[in-house]
Amino acid sequence: MPDIVHVRGLEFVANHGATAAERRSTRRFRVDVELAQSLDAPARSDRLADTIDYARVCAIVLEHGTRSTYKLLEALAGAIADALQLTYPRAAVTITLEKLAPPCPGIPDACGVTLHRAVP
């Protein structure tokens, strides 16, 4: 089983959506991120420089989630995954991105995607 650094339940407000009307209004989004790589070095050294900094992970997610507008959650999740792998190239990335209270029939709590990226 791989070692994992994770961030769960990170939320932001943005203007993503398939329709122009969705992109004109803000909605809440929630993100869970897992980065899998060996954590042997930081487990021994107790140094932040040797591990995945989850504060930096949060900053990357928020930057990509709020600075651009995407029609598809898949595109936003892909942009976040790409940015994380540029920062942490030895890590496999899993992102679950949810739009909270989406404008869908049946009034779901959330709809979303999960994207996996292997180590490049």
Radius of gyration: 15 Å
What order do the helices and strands follow?
A: EHEHHHEE
Shape: elongated
**Beta-strand percentage?**
25-35%
Largest sheet composition: 4 strands, antiparallel
CATH superfamily membership = GTP cyclohydrolase I, C-terminal domain/NADPH-dependent 7-cyano-7-deazaguanine reductase, N-terminal domain
User: Residue-averaged pLDDT, rounded?
Assistant: 95
**Total count of helical runs of at least 4 residues:** 4
Number of strands: 4
Write the layout of secondary structure elements.
Elements: E1 4-14, H1 20-24, E2 27-36, H2 40-45, H3 54-67, H4 73-87, E3 92-100, E4 110-117
Antiparallel strand pairs: 1-2, 2-3, 3-4
Can you describe what's shown?
It is built from four helices and four strands. The chain is of the alpha+beta class. It has one domain: GTP cyclohydrolase I, C-terminal domain/NADPH-dependent 7-cyano-7-deazaguanine reductase, N-terminal domain (GTP Cyclohydrolase I, domain 2). Strands 1-2-3-4 form a four-stranded antiparallel beta sheet, covered by helices on one side. Helix 3 packs antiparallel against helix 4. The protein starts with a strand and ends with a strand. The mean pLDDT is 95.
Structural key phrases:
alpha+beta, single chain, four-stranded antiparallel sheet, GTP Cyclohydrolase I, domain 2, 120 residues
Summarize the structure.
The protein is 33% helix and 32% strand.
